[in-house]
Amino acid sequence: MKQSEIQNQQEVWNSIAPEWYAFKTHAGEKNLEFIKKQRGKILDLGCGAGRNFTKTKAEIYALDFSEEMIKYSKKKAKKLKIKNIQFFVSDAEKLPFEDNFFDSVISTALLHCIPTKAKRKKVLKELYRVLKPKAQAKISTWNKNSTRFKKKKKEDFVGWRDKGKRYYYFYTKDEIKKDLESLRFKIEEIIAGVDFPNITLMIQKP
After folding, report:
1. 195, 146 in Cβ contact below 8 A?
2. Domains in the chain and their CATH numbers?
3. Which single residue of 86, 152, 177, 203 has CA 20 to 30 Å from 80?
4. How far is CA 49 from CA 53, 90, 186, in A?
5. Residues 6+ apart with CB under 8 A from 204
6. pLDDT by residue (tens digit) across 106-115?
């Protein structure tokens, strides 16, 4: 694996943003249900082009490290007439928010895009830091033991047409569970299996 490829990930995601916006148009119904019932402040961590955006009484904080993705997420919010939203360009390993700031967090398919174990651990530590006590987070990451990814390497680059190669790390259920519990997260629900390409977790900061 080339270090230069890892370093260019922001450039890759900027380049695919227009097509990502056109392709990733819908969130899963469970994600929408989670967001719609929230109150207070909710962080969409790794918001991409805004596929999780929906009307909610919560104040939405949309964050991504790609400036182009944020540009398209603003377009998505305007299209849906969502006004209670703020946008941030930032790495997930160092969030620009105070401790115990959020009432909830949703993070869809972000964690497996973070290169190196140390950085993934930092993302989870930051998630814990910015959540209020008793607050919930709904996160998902690709499932190594699913039929779709079983033959994949633990970490790899996946091409997006001619726009470059995106880094991915493939978690197992036991691995992500262990990482979260080591940071004192309480795991309320975990969904994983050979028929599910994603591992989906509902977690809580005690």
Report:
1. yes
2. 3-204 (3.40.50.150)
3. 203
4. 9, 15, 29
5. 134, 135, 136, 137, 185, 186, 188
6. 999 999 999 9
pTM of the model: 0.94
Distance between CA atoms of 145 and 189, rounded to whole angstroms?
Answer: 18
Q: Tokens standing for 167?
A: 């880094």
Q: How far apart are CA 201 and CA 187, in angstroms?
A: 7
Q: C-alpha distances in angstroms, 66 versus 18, 50, 106, 122, 125?
A: 12, 12, 18, 18, 21
